[in-house]
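Run: sequence + protoporphyrin IX containing FE -> complex structure.
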Amino acid sequence: MNTVAAYVRVQVQSNDNSIKVWDPVVRIGHWTLVLTFFTAYFTEDDFLTAHVWSGYVLGGVVLCRLVWGFFGTRYARFSGFVRSPVAALGYVTDLFRNRGQRYIGHNPAGGVMILVMLVFLAGTAVSGIVLYGMEDSAGPLASWVAPYAESEHLWEEIHEVFSNLTLLLVGLHIAGVLLSSYVHRENLVVAMMTGRKKSEGA
Ligand code: HEM
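>> structure
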């Protein structure tokens, strides 16, 4: 029975002309980031518990993604998609001319953006944890940072700047995904859900 199931799976994979690119860690991690970032962004002080827990989960996902970037599957590894800013710029220029090489994994511009987003997401989460410790004497850093509560306003600013810049990056990220999907005639959003992309043109 197992052999039949394996045979059918191989047939489906080779007949539908698609290959598996994004593993479950990447996909579940991605959509969890989307959910938690927007939940945290729109709750703030009004629903502090939801805000804080979304932030913790977001921070955990960022941490896992950083580790996965070194030990994960082929297309998830940083070594597979991190290229120079020059390559990223070249890709974007080509994209605006309605051409540009198609990549099975992340394209060079996506690669740079992903790294920058992960850094800003981490900055947002860490500054939030510091602020929570100073403002409410709560959270994992409370005992370390509570004595410095006088710099609470500074950390409030830092947390706000990080979260707003992250929102800006997310806007650029979504615009990039849509433009790239259009130029390559491939729905990258669906690919981030199913994990599969067309195999030709790699
Ligand atoms: C808070 C909002 C978002 C954040 C923080 C975010 C972050 C990321 C990150 C970190 C990756 C890399 C995935 C990985 O390799 O693990 C990624 C890829 C991707 N994201 Fe987002 N994302 C956000 C919103 C969205 C939305 C709303 C969409 C859909 C319109 C989207 C579509 C995609 C797609 C299609 C990719 C794969 C790009 C490619 O094919 O190279 N993202 N995103």
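>> summary
The longest helix spans residues 152-183. Residues 10-14 have pLDDT under 50 and may be disordered.
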